[in-house]
Structure formats: structure tokens, C-alpha cells
Amino acid sequence: MTRSRVRRVVLAISTATVLTGLSACTSAAEPAPGGGGTARPARAVLAALRSAERSTQRARSVRVRSTTALGSLMSTSAEGALGWSDGLTGTLTITYTGGSTADLMRRLDSTSLETRYLHDAYYARVGPAFARRLGGRHWIRYPYDYLATLGGGTGAMMTDLMRNTTPGRPVRLLLASGDVRRTGQEQVLGVRTAHYSGTVGVSDLGGERELREQLTQAGVGTETVDIWVDDHDLLVKKVEKAVTASGAMTQTTYYSGYGVRVTAERPPAGDTRDFGTLLKQRDGTGPAS
Question: Closest Cα to residue 147, out of 132, 159, 136, 162?
Fold first, then answer.
């Protein structure tokens, strides 16, 4: 496998893994009071959103089922469980369902990946065809410290997103929005929920440095966010839409089983290749060493 092909594959895996982690996650800083829009949302709406942020943070874990589409680059689905009591931990199965990346992963028999999130790194299990190119090893390790050194600010953004996480990202975005509103009640997954919707731009995030940097580095100017919250102030569903530097992004996530037990075992070192090593390896036709 050529060096450019290795880079393309391992970067595609990292992009999908980070995007999927985002379907439930962001840092746990306190939400900004109010927002930067021209009109303040109703106090009852802000109070309900703050209660949802606190309740989801206290739950510490959740089952996740999500779909993500990013322009013509990729579309994915994911299912598993994530915890955030001490950084992000958990296991997801991510499946490439469309886009140019899915075509590439299909040729490598790696359209479905098990991913494990640990405190210092996340791991992705590749299929047999790609494993043969890795000297028979089945896991790629993505250390957060190394990701933070990648150029263009992307790596630092990925590291921040993956190391400091709770399910409150869409709630915090809505708290920063000046036009968030409750649109009514709906049944989602058989549960009665309140539906909140809003639009947030980079200029709204004056007091939310991390969120502002995330949107800026992803090339996002404005994002629309919808969430559905149950009677226990827990998120049941969220939808985020934005135009990014890589194309239009839509992400839909369903949450259930808050407080579920979450485990993520570190793969054996002898069956693992390191992301940084793969990026640096010399061109060749044999297995990565």
C-alpha cells in the first residue's frame, strides 16, 4: 500500500471516529448565560435547557445510535455506548454507508469498524485486507497527544473534542443561541418530549471559547440545532446541520439507557499500529512495519 493510500485511510478513520464521538459529546464547562443573539430567549426556555445540561452530565453514560453525512466525503452510522465520568470512554461500531470514503473502505474490507475510546487515545479495528497491510495487526491507535500536534489546528480541535466530553454539546449551542425556542411536544422513540430549536453562529459564542474554536476550525459559520428532551430532562434526540469546509453536514443522534455500564478494553499492543507511525512510514508495497 502506498504512503498516500495509508494516509488517506487512517485519516478517513479518524475523521469518522471524531465526528461520531461528537454525536454525543463536548466539554463540560458551564454554559454561557443568555447568548450573543439580538433577542434573549424566554427565561423558561433557558431554564429548561440548563436543567437538561445538568441532568445529562450527571447521568455519566448513555447508549448512542447516530447517522452522520458530510458532503460527498462520507456518510456513516454508529451504535454503542459512551461514558464521560472521567473523559470519554466507551465502544462504538461505526459503519461507512456512502461517499468516496465508503468506496475506499469497501476495497479494504473495512466498512464496519469497532472503535474504543480510552482516556489517552482511541482505537479502530480494521478489516482483514487492511490488517494484512499492517503486518497482520488489526488495530490503529490514535493518541490524543499526537493528534494535537497535527497542522492547521485540526489535531488540536480533535484532541479537545475527544478528551473533554459530555452529551451537552447541542444544549450548550442552543444556550448560546439568541433565537432558541420551544416548538412544541412530540413523541420520539415512544417517549413524550419537548422540542427545542435554534440557530447559532460563531459570533454568538463569545463566552464559549471551546465551542467557538470548534466551529471556526471546522469552517462552520452558522449551525442549526434541534433537540428533544424527555420529562426527566434528558436528551432523547438531537439533529445538527451545518455547512463545513468539507461540505454540508447533517448529524442525527438518538439517546437511550442513561447510566448504562460502559467498558472499553485496551487492545493488545502486539496487535496495534500507531497512527503517527503509519503517517510517517516510507512508501512501499509490503506490510507497514
Answer: 159
Nine-digit cell at 183? 416548538
Which amino acid, residue 191? V
Q: Is 233 helix (H, G, I), strand (E, B) or coil?
A: coil
What secondary structure does DSSP assign to 234-255, as a single string?
-EEEEEEEEEETTEEEEEEEEE
State whether residue 196 is helix, strand or coil: strand
- Of 142, 163, 144, 130, the closest CA to residue 22 belongs to 163
Q: What is the pLDDT of residues 252-272, one digit of tens each?
A: 999 999 999 999 999 999 999
Closest CA to 179 of 162, 204, 150, 156: 204
Q: What is the DSSP letter of 36?
A: S
Distance of CA 127 to the CA centre of its chain: 22
What type of residue sits at position 245?
A
At residue 129, what are phi and psi to the nearest 5 degrees? Answer: -65, -45
Nearest to 258 by CA among 78, 92, 61, 66: 61
- CA dist 155 and 17 (Å) reads 13
| C-beta separation of 230 from 219 below 8 A | no
- Is residue 31 pLDDT above 50, yes or no? no
| Bigger pLDDT: 161 vs 285 | 161
- How far, in Å, CA of 105 to CA of 126, rounded? 9
In single-letter form, the type of residue at position 133 comes to R
Q: Looking at per-residue confidence, does 190 or 278 come out higher?
A: 190
φ, ψ for residue 61, nearest 5 deg: -165, 160
Q: What is the dihedral of CA 202, 206, 211, 212, to 10 degrees?
A: 40
- Would you state the cell numbers that stand for residue 206, as one nine-digit string? 463569545
Confidence of residue 203 (pLDDT cuts 50, 70, 90): confident
Q: Tell me, what's the pLDDT at 13? A: 73
C-alpha cell at 287: 506490510
User: What is the arithmetic mean of pLDDT over 132-157?
Assistant: 75
